[in-house]
Amino acid sequence: MRTWFITGASRGFGALIAQKALAAGDAVVATARDPQAVIDRIGQHPNLLAVALDVTDEAQAHQAAKTAVERFGRIDILVNNAGYGLLGAVEEATGSEIEALYRTNVFGLLAVTRAVLPHMRRQRSGRILNLSSVGGLRSGPGFGVYCSTKFAVEGLTEALAAELAPLGIFATAVEPGYFRTDFLDATSLSVSPASIADYHETAGATRTHAAEVSHAQPGDPERLAKVLVAFVDAPNPPVRLPLGSDTAAATEAKAAQLLEVVNAWRGVAVSTDFPAEEAA
């Protein structure tokens, strides 16, 4: 029996992953600001421990990890799922909105990871799944600040994967595309109240599109949860896991775009090196 530690487990991907893990016979430490919300969503289960955790509170993160180990003896899989979105042009977002988003999506993820890692290092085993997004691969108008947090998650995960591999611990950035969750609802998406007319055709168009596609996204959350529960058994997991046909297409397009830029600007790129004779 493996032990999962899942943040933001009262709804969305977090709750679904918790349910699938329990159905597979694993133990789950499901965290949320209100642990009763976890019980209300998932129900009572002998292998379920609902724990209060605000990921922005580092001391609480350490206590939650300690409680998990006291109950189940170990933490095998950390799922950093807690987070939310921010919709609005970069200029429209306020400093307080940006800081709050980073406190949860980046600093919260860091706090929980640092709290869990000592236990995984002691075991010399573990899996870390950091919920990123297709927005961690590419950014776009209206989601620039949100995507910047997911770009940060990608960079942190890539470094963690290299640092932890010799210790038997694997880290993966999970990149869902548009899945039919409540992500585009007010419960998961904050919308900047400021609206600047000059951004009407860019960020403004994204605001309209987000409202139109909410709950009509192509991705199936149940299938994503099933994939992730099976994925933790992969012997050599990738650093990035694209999920959804839209993320797969975006990955291919981004790779082609990067190669196109390098090929077009290779002369400029290499011109910044010392001349060969000076380098020698």
* Percent of residues in beta strands: 15-25%
Measured on Cα atoms, how large is the radius of gyration? 20 Å
* Molecular shape: globular
Count of alpha and pi helical runs: 9
Strand order of the largest sheet: 3-2-1-4-6-7-9
**Mean of residue pLDDT values:** 93
Total beta strands: 9
Percentage of residues assigned to helices: 40-55%
Structural class: alpha/beta
Unreliable runs: none
Describe the sheet with the most strands: 7 strands, parallel
Terminal CA distance reads: 57 Å
Order of helices and strands: EHEHEHEEHEHEEHHEHH
Account of the protein in words:
The protein contains nine helices and nine strands. With 280 residues, it is an alpha/beta fold. The chain has a seven-stranded parallel sheet, with helices on both faces. Strands 5-8 form a two-stranded parallel sheet. Helix 1 (12-23) links the parallel strand 1 and strand 2 (27-32). Helix 1 (12-23) crosses helix 7 (221-231), helix 3 runs parallel beside helix 4 (95-123) and helix 4 runs parallel beside helix 5 (144-164). The protein is globular and about 60 Å long. It starts with a strand and ends with a helix. The model has no long low-confidence stretch (mean pLDDT 93).
Which short descriptors sum up this protein?
280 residues, 9 strands, alpha/beta, two-stranded parallel ribbon, 9 helices, 49% helix, seven-stranded parallel beta sheet
